Amino acid sequence: MTDDLAMMSATELVAHYRRKTLSPVEVTQAALERIEQCDGALNAFCHLDPDTTLAAARESEGRWQAGTPQGLVDGVPTTIKDALLTKGWPTRRGSRTGSADGPWDEDGAATARLRAQGAVLIGKTTTPEYGWKGVTDSPLTGITRNPWNTERTPSGSSGGAAAACAVGMGALHVGTDGAGSIRMPSAFTGIYGLKPTFGRVPIYPMNMPGTIVHHGPMTRTVADAALMLNVISEPDPRDWTAMPYDPRDWRVGLEEGVSGLRIAYSRDFGYADVNPEIAELVEKAAQVFADLGAIVEETDPGFEAPYEAFGTYYFLRFRPLVDMMDDAERELMDPGLVRSVEEYRDKGIAESLAADTTRLMLGRHMNLFHQDYDLLISPQMPLTAFEVGVEVPAGRGMRNWMDWSPFTYPFNFTQAPAASVPCGLTSEGLPAAVQIAGPRYREDLVLRASRAYESVCPFVMPDLPSA
Questions:
Q1: Are strands 120-125 and 214-219 parallel, antiparallel or unpaired?
Q2: 256 exposed, middle or buried (CB, 10 Å; 0-12, 13-18, 19+)?
Q3: Domains by residue range for the chain, with CATH
Q4: Considering 9, 95, 181, 233, which one is annotated as catalytic?
């Protein structure tokens, strides 16, 4: 609980609105004031429209005063990553290759669901160009910074959403995750991020890189993520790849704990190099689950790193984007994106099919693994947030951002749910996180375990950065 309006959870805000002890207008003003206070240091937003935002807040206030709220998140300040269409606001995707001129006359799927349930949209958050990499800087918007240390990256590609979330620039934040882009920045900024099962949250339009992309909640509490999942998982007929709608309330069962659950704990998946401080914090988290009554067994998931297969699958899907640009447009693009596509240009049909086969085998392997274990926990990231403005930390011989995210992209291949859960701070005062991965369709288990951990190890947000 907090008296800081900007840091209140969406769950708390809705309860206040219902009791008429707070107004969506004053809460929205607090969020906008926090943006004015902090975003000069963080650069988390690429588009703000305070007049439109406050007008929406006043409409919400009127509905609450009349006792007719529009939905589950009516009046809650919410951000949209600049990868999702937002009616009336430009969607640039971090790129200088497209114009801000409209008409911007359509909402993406998650945007539409949130707007329909009364969320007050306060702005668009930054992304690397077309969400291609694991840090958030782009030719369009420059560098986004980590609120725990503004000389460090918040990761990416949903880095703007993560930075905004951590300091109260909105209560609910939409992220996208094609290789870790919800979980990586959640880990680096100490917030909670959930990548749902693919198809749980409808996606429109479906952009690169296809059926490994998930949209999901980034929040300061587990309950808020469950609340937000209720909203954004509602059906959208424009997404034919979405799974059948499940009308369940994802908040139900959050407090059931983990007693009796079978949890596999892996220090490194058998192949990752993990910072010793992070390894220690994650091991302590595993012990917390055991203390809460889970049956925790240390074991690796038993698959080889799908690095080459995933890289092939991923970057081949960015090739058409780069190839459709003329020479002048390509000069405007992030050189790293162009370079990465060129590095994989020699990959053809045979390599693409081999990557598909690796994906199929990994999916089957993890389905069988979850016959024995309800959940798999591991480090979320093997390192802490590193310096801004670079794709990989200096001096470690890494090829690209996939080298420092070994725990994320396997679960994009398998489409299974996975969450980043803050689990403490290192000696540098930087967040660490444990990943909780579940079987496909079992967000309930992931959320339940996340909440069990949060209930005894509450999440801590950073001090506000100075401009």
A1: unpaired
A2: middle
A3: 5-456 (3.90.1300.10)
A4: 181
**CA gap 393, 374 in Å, rounded:** 34
One of 157, 158, 233, 266 is an active-site residue; which one?
Answer: 157
340 is catalytic: no
Q: What is the DSSP letter of 97?
A: S
What confidence score (pLDDT) does residue 467 get?
A: 64
Q: Which residues are within 8 A (CB) of 375 and not within 5 positions of it... i.e. 6 or more apart? A: 261, 262, 263, 264, 436, 437, 438, 445, 446, 449
Nearest alpha-carbon partner for 420 in 191, 227, 244:
191
Query: Confidence class of residue 207 from pLDDT cuts 50, 70 and 90?
Result: confident
Question: Could you tell me the two tokens for 200?
Answer: 């749980």
| Overall size of the chain counted in residues | 467
> Is residue 375 within 8 Å of 265, Cβ to Cβ?
no
Between the alpha carbon of residue 114 and those of residues 70, 175, 215, 322, the distances in Å are 10, 13, 13, 32
CB atoms within 10 A of CB 78: 27
Query: 283, exposed or middle or buried, with CB in 10 Å at 0-12, 13-18, 19+?
Result: middle
Q: Which residues pair with 231 in a beta bridge?
A: none
Residue 208 has pLDDT above 80, yes or no: no
Phi-psi region of 210 (alpha: psi -120 to 50; beta: other; left: phi over 0): left
Q: How distant is the alpha carbon of residue 100 from its chain centre?
A: 25
81 is catalytic: yes
Identify whether 181 is a catalytic site residue. Answer: yes
Catalytic residue among 9, 23, 60, 81: 81
Q: Which helix H or strand E contains 339, and what residues bound it?
A: helix 335-343
Q: At what angle do helices 307-316 and 349-372 cross, to 10 degrees?
A: 130
pLDDT band for position 275 (cuts 50, 70, 90): very high
For the stretch 59-65, contacts whose Cβ atoms lie closer than 8 Å and that sit 24 or more positions apart, written own/partner, are: 60/24, 60/25, 60/118, 60/120, 61/23, 61/24, 61/25, 63/118, 64/17, 64/18, 64/20, 64/23, 64/24, 65/20
Q: How far is 20 from 293, CA to CA, in rounded Å?
A: 40
pTM above 0.90, yes or no: yes
CB 314 within 8 A of CB 307: no
